[in-house]
Design brief:
The chain is an alpha/beta fold. It has 13 helices and 9 strands. The chain has helices at 16-19, 24-34, 55-61, 81-98, 125-135, 151-154, 158-169, 214-217, 232-252, 257-261, 280-283, 291-306, 316-335, and strands spanning 36-43, 46-53, 66-72, 110-114, 143-146, 173-182, 191-195, 221-231, 310-311. Strands 1, 2, 3, 4, 5, 6, 7, 8 and 9 form a 9-stranded mixed sheet that branches.
Length: 338
């Protein structure tokens, strides 16, 4: 069977090595054996995963050495002003911590690069951010902002554009903002990843472009990314998983008096540990397989017809605008304290 990477992701906490190490003991073992340190914490409604990868960890999990901070509000909606406020605050706090070792001079410059294709909505967060920054009444003199477009539009490597500007400007820091891909549909437009390792533009959707990093520029590079797309088969796998767990929960609790006395439509708890053998008489043995085994089945089934499809929320234009505004506001608040 041809091996398709249909669970593409740019988020480090979705990489296999991190996903399979969830308990405290597993995380400690991962830190000792492969140089990857994972810390989970919560600030209000924001879930934060801090992953520190050293040189050995880079060899083991294929992620660059450095720090990765993932911020997520699982219940976030477009109308959730409180959620966006908390997310921006935590992004600002973690952004400050990530750069506290830098010492600033009055004439130091910061180069902000908005990656992406503004004609494709889920990929337009970088250009939208630059638009938001230019529209502000007060543009900090430290900032130089540019949206270089994508190679398909310009015929020129984006990384080379950035390198040329950095060579001329010689900024103290390069900040790159881009859309990302996720392997979990419930994280679409509800997560921000912050890292000091730079970025490979387009890597999450299978496009290998020149990286933008300290190694390439000789200048510290911070990347801010928001996941806006997911592979279509992931949605199928997620939907089947929810369906199977929902039916298993209903079968397990059908004799529970609380389900019979409910005045409204009863919704089972599908997040708890369930006995999936309860649905085997209905769906057969495959329903008792592990999530990974079912994913392999879907990979084989949908590889030819769905592997090229990426999905984004129908309100993508509103999400992109909200995040562009959020990141612009955070950057201005951060720069005001330099």
């Amino acid at each position: 069977m041809q091996n398709f990477n249909w669970y593409r992701t740019d988020l480090i906490d979705e990489s296999e090595e991190v996903v399979v190490h969830q308990t405290k003991e597993q995380k400690e073992k991962l830190k000792q054996s492969s140089g990857v340190q994972i810390e989970d914490r919560t600030a209000g409604r924001v879930k934060i995963t801090d992953v520190l990868v050293d040189g050995e960890g880079e060899k083991q999990i294929g992620k660059k050495e450095g720090q990765y901070i993932t911020l997520s509000v699982p219940t976030l909606t477009l109308e959730d002003q409180d959620g966006f406020v908390q997310l921006e605050q935590e992004l600002l706090e973690n952004f400050k911590k990530l750069h506290e070792s830098l010492s600033w001079q009055e004439d130091d410059k910061i180069l902000i690069i908005g990656l992406g294709n503004r004609t494709i909505t889920p990929d337009a967060i970088g250009p939208y951010l630059i638009d938001h920054l230019h529209s502000l009444d007060v543009i900090d003199d430290k900032f130089v902002m540019y949206a270089p477009g994508v190679t398909g539009q310009t015929g020129y490597e984006t990384g080379e554009f950035v390198a040329a500007i950095a060579e001329r400007l010689k900024p103290k820091l390069v900040i790159v903002v881009d859309a990302l891909a996720t392997r979990a549909s419930n994280r679409l437009c509800k997560t921000i990843q912050l890292t000091n390792t730079g970025i490979h533009p387009g890597s999450g959707v299978g496009n290998q472009r020149q990286e933008i990093s300290f190694e390439m520029l000789g200048i510290p590079v911070t990347a801010i990314g928001i996941p806006t797309v997911v592979d279509a088969p992931v949605l199928i796998a997620d939907a089947v998983e929810v369906m199977l767990r929902s039916i298993a929960a209903r079968v397990a609790e059908r004799s529970n008096p609380s389900s019979k006395l409910s005045l409204s439509s009863w919704q089972p708890n599908i997040d708890k540990e369930l006995d999936m053998s309860l649905v085997e008489p209905i769906f057969g043995e495959w329903a008792t397989w592990t999530r990974e085994e079912r994913q392999q089945l879907f990979e084989e089934t949908f590889a030819a017809s769905h592997r090229q499809l990426m999905v984004t929320p129908k309100e993508a234009d509103y999400w992109i605008d909200r995040y562009a505004n959020l990141v612009a506001s955070m950057l201005m608040n951060w720069a005001s304290d330099l």
